[in-house]
């Protein structure tokens, strides 16, 4: 296989963009196990007191993730995230105002492999979410598993990430307006369908976030991220194959999916775990008004769920031509 190396005269700003994405990829893939290893390793060194003191801190701070987390605005506004934004690049597209007097649940589609668009737009301040939607504070949901990792939990909370369970998601929605909870609705299973050129959305039986919106009177906002599935290639794993069966079994046991993805390298473009430089355009749709209903009937839940799917389809069809998607292509709800 011929290896396509990066040119030596690559401009400094592009090298900085690559470095920014390297640290982000490592954060998602390797930082959690590194933190766990470090925590236990320190116990057997002369620095054992660090892990002991952290354990005491963790005991008293255990419920913080489920109570809105602990965002660090300074870290969210670092220049490194702008370099990451420009690597792809990532752009946030607004189609309607979101009144900060209300709360919102933003359904993010598709999940992609590493939700690059959601992180860039709703966790850090690189794409102008606060300027486009003044008065709103975003909270993105992440698998609860990661909040059980020492040190790593504190890192992800700095970006406004909170556990993806009902208790954690409900906490910010109890505020009187100004909250936008971002949910990658397809979750970990949808990552297994993140192949370039595909538009499969795991939504047909996903109604938990719809019910939560009704219980809190939070308006629903469909969000579609064009290009999210394009930044990585993935080993073919169609439903029914032995590889997909193994992946789904592991996902049901561990709670996380293991897509066999690949992209480019740091100093060459032929192979590696770095995402490709392909644009991601995240389009935020119009809000769907939801009246508070703490005990919705099955019929009411199904009706709102269908309305949400229709609005997501309309959002996709309205904007797909702007981002190189064929006019005959439509979303496939799974």
UniProtKB/TrEMBL annotation:
One of its GO terms (molecular function) is 2-acylglycerol O-acyltransferase activity. It is an enzyme of class 2 (transferase). GO terms for biological process: diacylglycerol biosynthetic process; triglyceride biosynthetic process. InterPro entries: DAGAT (IPR007130). Its EC number is 2.3.1.-. Keywords: Acyltransferase, Endoplasmic reticulum, Lipid biosynthesis, Lipid metabolism, Membrane, Transferase, Transmembrane, Transmembrane helix. The chain crosses the membrane at residues 21-41. Pfam families: DAGAT. It is found in: Endoplasmic reticulum membrane. Its main location: endoplasmic reticulum. It is a multi-pass membrane protein. GO terms for cellular component: endoplasmic reticulum membrane. It comes from the Eukaryota. The keyword Lipid biosynthesis applies. Belongs to the diacylglycerol acyltransferase family. This is Acyltransferase.
């Amino acid at each position: 296989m011929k290896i396509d190396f990066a040119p030596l005269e690559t401009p400094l700003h592009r090298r900085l963009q690559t470095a920014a994405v390297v640290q982000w990829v490592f954060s998602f893939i390797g930082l959690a196990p590194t933190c766990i290893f470090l925590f236990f390793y320190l116990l057997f060194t002369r620095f054992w007191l660090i892990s002991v003191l952290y354990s005491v801190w963790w005991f008293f701070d255990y419920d913080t993730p489920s109570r809105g987390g602990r965002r660090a605005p300074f870290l969210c506004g670092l220049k490194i995230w702008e370099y990451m934004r420009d690597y792809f690049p990532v752009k946030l597209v607004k189609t309607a105002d979101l009144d900060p007097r209300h709360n919102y649940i933003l359904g993010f589609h598709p999940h992609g492999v590493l939700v690059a668009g959601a992180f860039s737009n709703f966790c850090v301040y690189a794409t102008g979410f606060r300027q486009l939607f003044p008065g709103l504070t975003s909270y993105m949901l992440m698998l609860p598993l990661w909040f059980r990792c020492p040190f790593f939990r504190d890192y992800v909370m700095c970006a406004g990430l909170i556990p993806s369970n009902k208790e954690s998601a409900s906490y910010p929605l109890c505020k009187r307006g100004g909250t936008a909870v971002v949910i990658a609705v397809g979750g970990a299973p949808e990552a297994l369908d993140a192949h370039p050129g595909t538009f499969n959305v795991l939504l047909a039986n996903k109604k938990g976030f719809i019910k939560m919106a009704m219980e809190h009177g939070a308006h629903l906002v469909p969000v579609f991220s064009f290009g999210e599935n394009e930044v990585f290639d993935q080993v073919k794993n169609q439903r029914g194959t032995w590889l997909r069966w193994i992946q789904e079994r592991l996902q049901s046991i561990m709670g996380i999916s293991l897509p066999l993805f690949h992209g480019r390298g740091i100093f060459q473009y032929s192979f590696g775990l770095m995402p490709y430089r392909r644009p991601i355009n995240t389009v935020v749709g119009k809000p769907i008004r939801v009246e508070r209903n703490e005990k919705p009937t099955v019929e009411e839940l199904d009706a709102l769920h269908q309305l949400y799917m229709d609005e997501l389809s309309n959002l996709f069809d309205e904007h797909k031509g702007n981002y190189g998607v064929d006019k005959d292509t439509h979303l496939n709800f799974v």
